[in-house]
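ok here's 3-oxo-5-alpha-steroid 4-dehydrogenase 1:
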Amino acid sequence: MGVFTSGSDRRLSITSLLFFIVLHSLLVLAMLQWVARSLMPVSYFFGTSVEAGAVGHEDGRWLRAWRLVATPAAANRLNYGQLCTLSLLHLASAAVTYLAVTYVTVAPFGRYAAQTRVPIAIPNTLSWMLQEAPTVWNVLFFVLYEYPSAYQQYHTRSAAGGTDAQPYVHLVMEALALLRLPLLLFLFHYIHRSFIFPLFLGRSRNDTPLHVTLSATAYCLFNGRLQLLASITLYPVPHDAGGGASLVEFFFNRGAQSSLCLVWLLALVALGGSYCFFRGMYINMMSDYMLIDLRRQRQRPLARDHQTAEVRALKQNYAIPYGFYFEHVSCPNFYGELVEWLGYAVTVLATGVVRPHPSAAFGALGFGRAAAAFSFFVYTAANLVPRAVCHHAWYIHTFGDAYRALHRRAIFPWYRAAYREDRHE
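and the structure:
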C-alpha cells in the first residue's frame, strides 16, 4: 500500500510514513530545545539577585546558559536586541523568498508538485499537520517547560533558598499570564491550520514533496518562536512585582503614565486590528473550503478540440471557482491571509507601545515587537503575492478566453498584476 503523487512514482509505504512521523517529531522536539536555549533565547529577570557567593566560573556559565540577568533593564535590552536582529533576518529571508518564487521556480506543491525532481512525497493532509504544528508546539514548550525550568534553575541558586519555591502548576499559570492578546490571535489561526483544516482536505492527486514539508517545518519553528518572543510580556516579571497583568489591567495601569486619549486610541487600534484579523481569516477559510468543495464535486468543464492533451487533463481535475471573493480575484484565500496578518501586526503594535513598569528600554521593546510582527506580514506577502500571480497565469493558461472574460485580478481586487503565461507552457 503506497502513496502516489502527480502521476510519478514517489510512494512511501505505511511503515515508512510512521517512521517519518516519529523521526519528524523527535527532530522538532530537539529543534525546539536548541532554538529556545541557543538560537532565540529569552533573557529572564526574576527579581532577586543570585546569591553573592555564586560568582565562580561555573556559576557564570550557568547564568549565561539560562539567560538570567541582574536587572529588568538588562533583560529588556537583550530581548529588544534579539527581536530587532531576528526581524531583520526575517525581512532578509522575505527578500530571498520573493526573488526565488518570482524569478527562479514556483513553489513545487499542489498543482505544481509535478515540477519537482525530489523522489519522495508526503500525503497532503499529513504534510499540513506536520509542517504547521511546530508553531503551536513553540507556545506549549515555553509554557510547560521553558519558563518553569528557568525559574526553577534560578530558585536553586537564589538568595531566597527554599523560602520562595513555587509549585509547577503555579509556574505554568504564570507563564500563561505572560501571553498577550496578539499571540492568542496567532494561535487561533495555527490551531485551525494545523489540526482542523487538514482534516477537510481529503485525498489529493498532488502530494507534497518531502523538501517542501521540511522547509515549511523549519520556517514555522523560526516564525513561531519569533512571534512568541514578540507577544509575551517582556521582561518576564517576578512573582512580587505584579507580573502577568491581563489586557484590561494593562490598559488601566498605563493610564497613570499616558494620556487618556492615547490609551483609548491604542485600544481602538487594537480592536480594529483584531477585526481585520478575523475578517481576513474568514475570507481565507471560506475561500479554502470553497476550493475543497469544488474539488470534491469533480466539476469538469467541456474541452474544446483545439486544446492540448495537457490542458484537457488539467480540466479533468480543476474547475473555475465562482462566488464570494472569487468574483474579483483568482486567489482570495491568499488575499484573506494577507489581511489577516496585517491585522495581527497592527494589534501587536497597538498593544506593545507602552508598558506600566518603568524601564528605559520599554519604548524600544514596543518597536521590536511591532518589527517582528510586520516582518511576518512582509514575509507572507513576499511568498503569497508571486504565487497568486502564478496561479492567475495558470488559470488563464488552462481555461483561456473563458477565464479572461471574467476580468479577475490576481490577488488584490484593486490591482491588476502582470503575469507570464510562459511559466506554464
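+1. The mean pLDDT is 79.
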